[in-house]
Design a protein that fits this description.
Layout: E1 19-22, E2 25-32, E3 37-43, E4 48-52, E5 57-62, E6 66-71, E7 74-78, E8 83-86, E9 92-98, E10 100-107
Antiparallel strand pairs: 1-2, 2-3, 3-10, 4-9, 5-8, 5-10, 6-7, 6-9
Length: about 110
């Protein structure tokens, strides 16, 4: 289903319903256009972002919580304030060690999310 706020200049957080996208993981599709997308991911402790890749460049900003991320063949623990770059086509995923929130920025937008 197409999200009704594509190309919206203002996207109030309270108006975006979270979607379950895995056990212990919810996401909100925030502002986006055809060229870029911002997504908020909320993880419970133990939540898993399964290993995957896609044809988008992705930057992740850790707002809160603690995660064990794998990008390519490297695994590291990340904490609030850390940023991660995932080039298109590179396998990546995470396990949430302490519940929290991260923001993902994609270019181009993830059509499979809408």
């Amino acid at each position: 289903m197409e999200k009704q706020h594509k190309d919206a200049v203002w996207v109030p957080h309270a108006e975006i319903e979270p979607e379950v996208c895995g056990k212990g993981v919810k996401r909100r599709i925030l502002a986006y256009s055809k060229d870029a997308m911002c997504v908020e991911n909320t993880f419970e402790t133990g939540g898993v972002g399964a290993m995957h890749c896609h044809p988008h460049t992705q930057v992740t900003y850790i707002v809160s919580g603690r995660y064990r991320f794998t990008i390519g063949d490297e695994t590291r623990e990340v904490v609030p304030g850390d940023t991660l770059l995932k080039q298109d086509g590179v396998m990546h995923g995470c396990v949430c060690l302490e519940g929290g929130v991260m923001l993902d920025f994609f270019t181009p937008m993830r059509e499979d999310f809408v």
